[in-house]
């Protein structure tokens, strides 16, 4: 795995915690469920799923007449050997934007003024969404998905003073409002202020964990680097001055060494800015080619181009493949240099460095007297990858999810009866806490598929947690597990409500204390508990069951044992009715099961990179998939036959900037291809650094 660019000893694929200097400031309901933007690392999710797919294909042989366990569709026929070339450069002014088409050699092939008056355009890292301000301004920065047929609904955020800086995973961006940096998620509920004074511009590192900031110090502008609260590789945890104040730098741009992705292990980062030469005061475009994986790797910028004058400190812009760098050159008369501007594109030189000797092209002459407010390249990446986890029946689909868990790190497996939905659904948070899968078994016999899943995931002597009574998982199954060398612990109960409460208590033991939150869902409407599982796991909370609109004694007693500060999340209509009198309760409901699923995702997840889909009319294929998504910090959304319900589509459109994979659990009878195709369209294109079909 790759080392982060600024802290050589840091561990990649880690979950970022908010640093002490950047505290959470949620935009919405407070409480343990609303936290900072940091979540499961996008790099961790990608690597985990790719490794699991490889294990599954390597372990499960072809079976004549049986569906392939793992189906990939819609991906390129061969791996991409480099980031696709993008010819689209947008030059923004205070009143309009101009699209410049750029050839591979950096020359212009044509221009067109936008029919949509807007400014400060900033494209998401997949090229499938954009942030901008309208002209005339409506006082907001708007974020909208890009759709071929148009009609996309935008979200409004407080207006940024400068173009927003997207995170490389597309899960959020940094805005600058009145000199204050704020990191925002594509989910408007989530926001985190960045505690650095007098900041005027920012750029997020390719790894997502670090923020390069231009700030005004006592002796003039400087560039500093510090923590960014996005999901990504763990980076620096404190602010460091990069030692570039002598250059009076403008806004920074950051790009990774081209031809390599964040997993390559030996790539470096480029830092570009306009500034003045400390020796003679002339204005230049500089590129600081990072020399090692620490902050001291910066501080020796190379003069790349004469820019005539510093006109507003506008950030240059690396193309998505990092092989070209766009910047502005002042060509006006002496004393009024900034009255006339040109947009130039400089190509990468030998040794993967930008140099003054590399080709430079004038791609557009700006109308006289017009300032340039933004430079933006739009990526043209492959569509979201399409995967399907299939099987001949529910037990195979469940078994195949187990291969996505690293056997070297799994200490326990949760086993539930394949005819007992309530038991299986409440087991998801327990499995997530134990770091293992939920595997379904036939009630009276341990099938080969279930056994292979356990054997491939859990070492002999490991613990299998059986959830449910003997009617769900018979004593014969337990005996077979013990004969194969596993330790078995059963968590049962007389009713499904007792089982759920006892699983919650088992989770208390694993956790080492009572939770700060609990979820309550209907014990008869399985979909509410299904979508609650990943959300509950994100808070290390249990899923309890209601009996219609009333609370069974087992559920009531467990909730009573929690502190008065604990939050109770009622998911769905019946769950809400059952705890209506509890002052700790927050309802997460909806008019339909599909709307409930979308609202749960909206309430508990700042963003996600996997659009996980399960049949909203059946539970078996979904329950193990929900446990897998819980383990990688992703929500589960629902389909309805051939239709992609509007709540599911809406969530995909809003988060398409970060979606790299659409993953369906079950065969075409569960998630028909038409629904999967619609989901891929809504999910947009893969992000440049983390896309599964990109380096």
Report on the architecture of this protein.
With 695 residues, the chain is α+β, with helices and mostly antiparallel strands. It folds into two domains: 42-75 and 384-406 and 416-683, no CATH class; 88-377, Neuraminidase. Helix content is 21%, strand content 28%. The protein has 14 helices and 37 strands. The strands form nine sheets. It has a five-stranded mixed sheet with strand order 1-26-37-35-36, with helices on both faces. A four-stranded antiparallel sheet has the order 4-3-2-25, with no helix packed on it. Strands 5-6-7-8 form a four-stranded antiparallel sheet, with no helix packed on it. A hairpin with a 5-residue loop joins β5 (118-123) and β6 (129-134). The chain is elongated. It starts with 41 loop residues before the first helix and ends in a 12-residue tail after the last helix. The relative contact order is 0.13. The model is unreliable at 1-36 and 77-81 (pLDDT under 50). Keywords: Signal. This is Cell wall-binding repeat-containing protein. Residues 105-147 are annotated as: Disordered. Residues 1-24 form the signal peptide. Residues 108-122 have a biased composition (Polar residues).
